[in-house]
Amino acid sequence: MAQKFAPRTLGVVGAAVCALALSACQDQASSGGGARDYISAVGSSTVYPFATAVGEKFAEATGNKTPKIDSTGTGGGFERFCSGVGGDTPDIANASRRIKKKEFDSCVANGVKDIVEVQIGIDGIALGEATRGPGFKLTEEDVYKALAANPYGKPNTAKTWKDVNPALPAVAISVFGPPSTSGTYDAFKELILGRGCDANPEMKALKDSDKDKHEATCTALRGAPFYVEQGENDNLIISKLDKNPTSLGIFGFSYLDANKGKIKAVPIQGVSPTYAAIADGSYPGSRPLFIYIKKAHVGVVPGLAEFVAEFLKGAGDGGYLNSKGLIVSPKPIADAAAANGTGMTALNGAELK
User: Fold this and answer.
1) Where are the domains of the chain?
2) CATH class (in words) of the domain with range 124-286
3) Alpha-carbon Rg of the chain, whole angstroms?
4) Exposed/middle/buried for 160, CB within 10 Å: 0-12, 13-18, 19+?
């Protein structure tokens, strides 16, 4: 006869089973054969330098192992993060955009049901050129006309920036940027390319009448030699610009800020990507940065809650991540992020897009 359990007992048994299942997965993920004793994070190349800095501080302060952080791109990070619960899956997804509804639903379908969202700060999508470059000054519409596969529904025939706008240099259109798995790529399409497209009244009207056609027309990028993907390595884009002084690069503001001796910013709509302009929203490429925590792993993977606390500390006003280019969120957002990270409050997916 099957043994019966009181409801409280069932809860304890269920928790124990979950812990054992996670431990078993950790056994498989560990090269030493024991439970995984380090934090695993994946995702955004933009968040990567901040996360590694936090990881070093966390290890130094707690004596825990330094977290293993992989730069996979935001989309690739969510794919791995949402693959399930257990030691062979990441504890944290770093993201340079908010999680999408379809990604959240994938998480839930795979058993990742409690996800904690923490906005760590603000960044900007920056366009840069070599210090000896021609000195580009662009509008969102210039960028759209140069890089869209089919601007305003017609094949793109522009070969030089002067073809796009007579006031621009007569040099070949050449832009090095992130791949489609990157949150920077998604944000660039939304914040720069899409707005450039919607500067045209017909395109703005199309957004209401045919959303799919609007997206295809406004955000599909042309390929090489005009737009060349460089993988999840913003430093590679920096080095490419040094060798190609008439080319442009797309990357997060922190990489621009860290390489002032090699590259210079390209103003968009007359505004340069500076700390102040991104913080107050006057720069058009401002965007939030996030980390997502798998709540089922908290209390099982050593130090996970402490790592999140260290991230919040470093990202706060006057924190050590500010000097690395991370821009502090407005106080109401920072306070909400601190509450989520401290209380491990699960995200309600109903509000996602």
Assistant:
1) 13-23+32-121+289-351, 124-286
2) alpha beta
3) 22
4) middle
Phi, psi for 95 (deg, rounded to 5):
-145, 135
Q: What is the fold, at CATH topology level, of the domain defined by 13-23+32-121+289-351? A: D-Maltodextrin-Binding Protein; domain 2 (3.40.190)
- Would you say 114 and 243 are in contact if contact means Cβ atoms under 8 Å apart? no
Evaluate whether 311 touches 54 at the Cβ level (below 8 Å): yes
Interval 210-225: pLDDT, tens: 999 999 999 999 999 9
The pair of structure tokens assigned to 204 is: 């703005």
Q: Are strands 286-294 and 263-265 parallel, antiparallel or unpaired?
A: unpaired
Question: pLDDT for 287-335, tens place per residue?
Answer: 999 999 999 999 999 999 999 999 999 999 999 999 899 999 999 999 9
3-state secondary structure the chain: CCCCCCHHHHHHHHHHHHHHHHHHHHHHHCCCCCCCCCCEEEECCCCHHHHHHHHHHHHHHHCCCCCEEEECCHHHHHHHHCCCCCCCCCCEEEECCCCCHHHHHHHHHCCCCCEEEEEEEEEEEEEEEECCCCCCCECHHHHHHHHECCHHHCCCCCCEHHHHCCCCCCCECCEEECCCCCHHHHHHHHHHHHHHHCCCHHHHHHHHHCHHHHHHHHHCECCCCCEEECCCCHHHHHHHHHHCCCCEEEEEHHHHHHCCCCEEECCECCECCCHHHHHCCCCCCEEEEEEEEEHHHECCECCHHHHHHHHHHHHCCCCCCHHHCCECCCHHHHHHHHHHHHHCCECCHHHCC
For residue 126, what are the β-bridge partners? 251
pTM (2 decimals)? Answer: 0.82
Give the Cβ contact number of residue 304 at 10 Å: 23
Tokens 């992989």 found at: 70
